[in-house]
Amino acid sequence: MATRLLLADLMTAAAEAGLGEVETESVGGVDAAERVAAGEEFDLVFLADGALAKLADGGHVTPASVTPLVLSQVAVAVPSDADTPAAATTDPAFESVAGVRDAIRAATKIGYSTGPSGTALVRMLEDWGLTAEVGGRLVQARPGIPVAQLLADGEVDLGFQQLSELVGRPGVTVLGVMPQGCAIDTVFSGAVATTSAEPDAAAVILSFLGTDAARDIARSHSFAVPPTR
Fold first, then answer.
1. Residue whose C-alpha is closest to residue 181's, from 99, 76, 78, 72
2. Residues 8-14: contacts with CB within 8 Å, 24+ apart?
3. Which of 52, 108, 151, 226 could disulfide-link 47, Cβ–Cβ 3.0 to 4.6 Å?
4. Are 222 and 163 in contact (CB under 8 A)?
5. How confident is the model at residue 192 (pLDDT cuts 50, 70, 90)?
6. pLDDT tops 80 at residue 178
7. What is the mean pLDDT of residues 48-56?
8. What are residue 79's DSSP bridge partners?
9. What start-end ranges are recorded for coiled-coil regions in this protein (predicted)?
């Protein structure tokens, strides 16, 4: 879900470049991986790097086609009374890890998402020894419901989610991204599905997504370029 708006714009750009029309369907990462693993027919698959690696190991996507596309940072947000869309910022939400811990301990309800970013946050709380203290205050966003919606609706007073999913949402103020020492970054990659009826055409689309033009579109959606391997 974190890449749904980005993918829509990327596929529009691919079509305008004469590479053909691509129909995209965005669902939660767990659901997407399960559907691909079950053999449902797709041409391309876009998921967090770790989930895509598992699909490659299982023979569900072509390993050689796996291509890192964008880097997504988890940001911290709070509710806002303003109706203006939340602005993007890549500045740290807090000066230190201690600031993040203090904010979590002070929050009444803490919203977090499904997928790799939510898993990383829960693991971080365990590492900090805060699970017993704040576990009852954690609110995981329901499938298809962004953390931004929980914030805007007053269900939580502190939220953690991919920056790209918070930017542009009304009723939310983005404090910034997680600071060094507790940053939660996710690389989203693409790959050609082994069920594809047109793997060569799919590979051409995937190659386009690594061009400078595609990266400019990604930056406009508050994503960064992933580090080279």
1. 99
2. 9/217, 9/220, 9/221, 10/209, 10/214, 10/217, 10/218, 11/205, 13/208, 13/213, 13/214, 13/217, 14/205, 14/208, 14/209
3. 52
4. yes
5. very high
6. yes
7. 95
8. 172
9. none
The b-or-e profile of 6-26 (16+ CB within 10 A means b, else e) is bbeebbebbeeeeeeebeeeb
**Which amino acid, 111?**
G
- Written as one letter, the residue type at 20 is G
As a whole number of angstroms, the distance between CA 162 and CA 160 comes to 7
The DSSP line for 139-185 is EEPPTT--HHHHHHTTS-SEEEEEHHHHTT-TTEEEEEEPPTTS--E
* Nearest alpha-carbon partner for 148 in 125, 174, 181: 174
Domains of the chain: 4-70+187-220 (3.40.190.10), 72-177 (3.40.190.10)
The answer to whether residues 74 and 178 touch, using CB atoms and an 8 Å cutoff, is: yes
